[in-house]
């Protein structure tokens, strides 16, 4: 039976959050029953190549962090903030999302120019146009097209793939366990890759027309719509508060 206060959240799980996930906590405070399903795993790669690039800040006008995993890759490649050449702190550092910016500060002691999504990040970078390329660590699934958007605006990037995204090995097991507990009324996706990894399983278990599908950002929304689903709401920013507002905007189903 569907629980209209049940929220199923598909997102990457940060190893250091434990039970302190702010998204879960804020929704729980608002009376929702929240379950989080880790649908993806991230495996780092090319860190030696990345370190070689990080050792030459003179070649770049700055660096772009599109998500927290890219920050983690840089930290792993160099061995911590103290090992990052100080010249990077004099260059432009761009971050997509507040979580990414916070991680850049905590892990690398880098202050960032922060935007809420890829489109606004692109506009910000274009306004600060650099004569040198921007270092762009990225994942293997480049659905945000940040490098292509910048290229169209004449901004050069040096792209290096630093992690791969693979399905979580226990996604089906974890999902079945969650559905046995309750059928969710709201399903939240944080990334397009999360949609593609879980929807083939999920569509067999829920009423896809009655479920409220919530996206974090327009790119994830487009991935939801690619399966013929209607996006009920989209968080304006990737923050716990904006997600709570998006869910509240759906309202209870009549009848």
Automatic annotation (TrEMBL):
Record GO terms (molecular function) = uroporphyrinogen-III synthase activity
Per the record's keyword annotation, is Signal included, yes or no? no
Return the GO cellular component terms, semicolon-separated: cytosol
Q: Which UniProt keywords apply?
A: Heme biosynthesis, Lyase, Porphyrin biosynthesis
Q: Supply the EC number(s).
A: 4.2.1.75
Q: Reaction catalysed? A: hydroxymethylbilane = uroporphyrinogen III + H2O
Keyword rRNA-binding among record annotations: no
Q: Which is an annotated Pfam family here?
A: HEM4
Instruction: Give start and end of each Tetrapyrrole biosynthesis uroporphyrinogen III synthase domain.
Output: 23-243
Extract the InterPro entries matched here.
4pyrrol_syn_uPrphyn_synt_sf, 4pyrrol_synth_uPrphyn_synth, UROS/Hem4
Q: Which residues form a coiled coil?
A: none
State the pathway, as annotated in the record. Answer: Porphyrin-containing compound metabolism; protoporphyrin-IX biosynthesis; coproporphyrinogen-III from 5-aminolevulinate: step 3/4
- GO annotation, biological process: heme B biosynthetic process; protoporphyrinogen IX biosynthetic process; uroporphyrinogen III biosynthetic process
What the record says about family reads: Belongs to the uroporphyrinogen-III synthase family.
State the protein's purpose. Catalyzes cyclization of the linear tetrapyrrole, hydroxymethylbilane, to the macrocyclic uroporphyrinogen III, the branch point for the various sub-pathways leading to the wide diversity of porphyrins. Porphyrins act as cofactors for a multitude of enzymes that perform a variety of processes within the cell such as methionine synthesis (vitamin B12) or oxygen transport (heme).
The name this protein goes by in its record? Uroporphyrinogen-III synthase
Q: Record the organism.
A: Graphocephala atropunctata
